[in-house]
Amino acid sequence: MDKIQKLAIGSIFVGTVVFVLKYAAYYITGSIALYSDALESIINVVTAVAAFMAVRLSATPADANHPYGHHKVEYFSAVLEGVLIIVAALAILREAYFGLLTPVVIDAPARGLAVNALASVINAVWSWLLIREGRRLRSPALVADGRHLLTDVVTSAGVIVGLLLVPLTGWSWLDPALAALVALNILWSGWGLIKESIGGLMDEALPETTLVRVREIIAVNAEGALEAHDLRTRHAGRMTFIDFHLVVPGSMSVTDAHDICDRLERALKAHIEDALITIHVEPAEKAKHAGIVVL
């Protein structure tokens, strides 16, 4: 079991602990805003399970039916997480609406908020770890899970501050109003997550800064070739796909052309570890005199 799968299992455990704490805070106080926080934590557990299944399947080696591997399954997990976030937000909005119609007095707010704050601290530490390791390991599922938890931390902080004002102001309607704000923030987070994941499913190119570096590596390490053109890139989970045409002199032997391709692959993989590189060698008359100039 690799580190990504271990982190995914950790998310299930952490999510369960946080949910228990947040539900306890809601049970103590009866606050709709804390109920919204607890409801989102249920989604955290469900999506953590989905993320674990996704990263486990994405690690499966390529086979005859999936010759490019199973890496894109992580994007499906992230889309599912976004959809569930939106469903949770709609459920919270419903409770907030009825809470605004009939506001209730919150019981034992200090004790409930202390329990909720403990859960938020746990979430903050874990979300930071997931985002950092997810980016390092290039796992969309872990990054998505971490960002979702970070949103949860921010909204929880807002809820805690807002509920502290309820006993000071006597405004009972502030509790459901905070729940509604939490729901709107969750909706925005869910939409952003779905949008980003769809980008991965649609084979978006690498970021421009990475593309510039890829072009530089090709230009510096293609000595003996004439030019490179038709560079295309895409990413799927941890894998990065790079393909381009390499123009060499017509008199060059297959062995020499192959050596240049091997040198390019080594240089590119040194910069992008999990890269699948395809190079199409062409003779001089196929040069387009546009693209990457070999230095």
From TrEMBL:
One of its GO terms (biological process) is intracellular zinc ion homeostasis. One of its GO terms (cellular component) is plasma membrane. The chain crosses the membrane at residues 7-26, 32-55, 75-93, 113-131, 152-171, 177-194. Residues 11-202 form the Cation efflux protein transmembrane domain. It is a multi-pass membrane protein. The keyword Transport applies. Residues 206-283 form the Cation efflux protein cytoplasmic domain. GO terms for molecular function: cadmium ion transmembrane transporter activity; ferrous iron transmembrane transporter activity; zinc efflux antiporter activity. The keyword Protein biosynthesis does not apply. Belongs to the cation diffusion facilitator (CDF) transporter (TC 2.A.4) family. This is Protein p34. It comes from Microvirga aerilata.
